[in-house]
Amino acid sequence: MKDRVKKEIRDYFFIIVGTLMLTVGVYFFKIPNGFATGGVSGIGTILGKITPHVSAGSWIMIINIVLLLLGFAFLGKQNGVRTVFCSLLFSVLTYVLEFVVPMNGPLTDQPLLELVYAMLLTAFGSAIIFNVGASSGGTDIAALILKKYTRLDVGKALLVVDFFVAASTFVVFSVEAGLFSMAGLFAKAFLVDSIIDNINSCKYFVVITDKSDMINEYITAELHHSCTITDATGGYSHTGKVMIHTVCKRIEAIKLRLHIKRIDPSAFIIITTTSEIIGRGFRSI
What we know:
This protein has helices at residues 2-33, 39-50, 56-75, 81-100, 111-131, 139-149, 154-172, 175-200, 212-221, 250-263; strands at 202-209, 228-233, 240-249, 268-274.
């Protein structure tokens, strides 16, 4: 029970951190420059420009609330509590920032620099949120509704919507803003997945050694992981060896590598990077 509570607290901490990064990227870099790379923040940015009396933050809040209500109506409990929390937190933070730190224009006169920060902050924020099983809501909810009631390829449908949102900045803002928005849209498609893969990356060890017992003891007692041990024969020397297979997190990999070399300096070690490991001690399905 305690472990479950700790995990919930940790997950919500990451959701808050991710949402803060997402909000900073959208409010300080996307909205002032007219970078609309899709999603609710992009739609809100465009509507905020078209309707001077209703701010982008207000539009983001309105659209997110409407989509959340539609999610509850059409999806029921599938519209998770974490997504609701994240969506409302993002909307409220953006709305509050408009009063606390009003933005009358871009922070700098370097739009390319601001696009880089806009993409990095929102990509990192989204990746952190997705990694704990939540999302910022918005068009993700629309995608789930489409998936449930139509045979549309949801990924392609959302990409088309995001493309039209980004393309509309050519008309609403300027050619420059449009070009930056299109560049940001394509960058976003690769960044989020890449960041998630890096967050989840682990190390896979194959160790050929004569000291398998001592290495196995360190893996189980110190790293609290298990390993698979098989007999092996050298193709050149024809001598018997033991092959150990194990996986661990990146920070543990450094300790394990050093410890193996202390135990058996002649050990042959193969280390590869894997983006996802599913099983006890790592990620659940």
